[in-house]
């Protein structure tokens, strides 16, 4: 059943842009389908992180009930029933005009400007990450529609972004802050993320923040017996392995996992699905660390790219243990993927991860002394040892891994379905549209 909003004017479907008064009363003339615009940097096939995964699945689930436009960064252009995807590229004058690190921030702003020029008929805008935050800010002003912002991460808590963006970090921070303070509602992907928002932006009223978790496609992400991906990448299926899947960034903490390898038995198989480095500097650091670790642990398999979804599912399904060593993680959707495939998880005890992984039930949480400014471990060596201790325990206990894996699957089934997340999101949309309608009636 499609969810309606109501046309109250003769020239537009949007009740908040043209309200028809009949005898001094705002009159409901005819029902039309709610139409929202989602803004994201990532969208298939160009997805490299959790925010892109989130928007991919959320948009498809929303489109089962309402009309959805996705505005993204890239060449995408498609129409499938009520899901319409429109990609765009940054301004060529910027992309071809500089190689400075701030280029990425300028490109993002150019897309924000480009993609708000044709939003007629949209009832609400919903942006994801700082890359597209200003599109929501501008659309709210230009089209007088409600603006929702999902905070997948926060620039003030990611000081290492200056390594990637250079002086552009000041610009990304300005874009996020400007949009955050203006949004009609902010979606926090965990309770911890909500607390982070209030800490980073104390001007934001707590009642403007709605906690809506990330989700998982329970039919797609499930344990499989297929092993072709293991064969293709040189993983020995007869030997238990610990698995990492993610980008090479300071945030994801993969270098801390590589540091932990020295504390594992020499015969341990480690599979690192680690690609898309943020900077040449961290790429070089990762290469040096892996080379050093291989000198005493030869069974390191490094897949230097972001693997396809079905390949990742095979790798999750046969891992003895999955490791998420992130130092900053508002939610950690990667843990849901592993748990859905019945992999036990060893993860850092930080951020929203603590609301996903249940310590001693679906895996283990590894605490560390965290710097409040950088989020990095104050004692990296102690963190590496803590990761290694829990990995060692599970690598050597197949039965405990089986129990944790079964419990993880049950947890994602009970709590993290995309259908439930979409319903909560639509309820938020309807509340904001109702609030906007009432504001016109005053």
Summarize the SSE layout with pairings:
Elements: E1 4-7, E2 21-22, E3 25-26, E4 30-33, E5 35-39, H1 50-62, E6 67-73, E7 77-80, E8 83-88, H2 92-95, H3 103-114, E9 124-128, H4 133-143, E10 147-151, H5 161-165, H6 168-182, E11 185-188, H7 191-200, E12 209-211, H8 228-233, E13 241-247, H9 254-260, E14 269-275, H10 280-294, E15 300-303, H11 309-318, E16 321-324, H12 333-340, E17 345-348, E18 363-366, H13 380-395, H14 398-415, H15 418-441
Parallel strand pairs: 5-6, 5-9, 6-8, 9-10, 10-11, 11-12, 13-14, 13-16, 14-15, 16-17, 17-18
Antiparallel strand pairs: 1-4, 2-3, 7-8
Helix pairs in contact: 1-15, 3-4, 3-6, 4-6, 9-10, 9-13, 12-14
Task: Note down, in words, how this protein is organized.
The protein is an alpha/beta fold and about 450 residues long. The chain is built from 15 helices and 18 strands. It has helices at about 50-60, 90-95, 105-115, 135-145, 160-165, 170-180, 190-200, 230-235, 255-260, 280-295, 310-320, 335-340, 380-395, 400-415, 420-440; strands at about 5, 20, 25, 30-35, 35-40, 65-75, 75-80, 85-90, 125-130, 145-150, 185-190, 210, 240-245, 270-275, 300-305, 320-325, 345-350, 365. The strands form four sheets. Strands 7-8-6-5-9-10-11-12 form an eight-stranded mixed beta sheet, with helices on both faces. Strand 14, helix 10 and strand 15 form a beta-alpha-beta unit. The longest helix is centred in the last third of the chain and has 24 residues, at about 420-440. The radius of gyration is 23 Å and the shape is globular. The model is unreliable at about 5-30 (pLDDT under 50).
